[in-house]
Request: fold
Amino acid sequence: MASLGTTCAFHGVPLMAHGGNNFYENGRRLYEGRTDVVGPVRKLYQEAAKSVGYGEREGNMAYYSADLVFSGRALTQRVPKKGAWRLYRYLEADRERKFKQLGKRGLWFEFGSSASTLEQLSSESKK
Reply:
């Protein structure tokens, strides 16, 4: 049986890796004024695609798709409501979807970044 730490690592590490990679790529784009920045996580996707007979394009499409899945999962996961307390564990009534806890700005930012990812995925699929 998997421990809680294993579960957190299974779900958390890819999410943190994608977030860190996005931060790295966007930061370098802004700082250096380049549009061809490829971070280490995207490079892994590209190398994995090449190893099974595809190209960088398919690796990028897999990266963008995974990014959207991680964003969607993070928004829809059930988390404890603000002010909820527990004795041993949270009851289902003490949980709500994460997007309900985001303010309007946070939600708009999330939708904007997902729209940008969708645009990149669309342009990559047309190459």
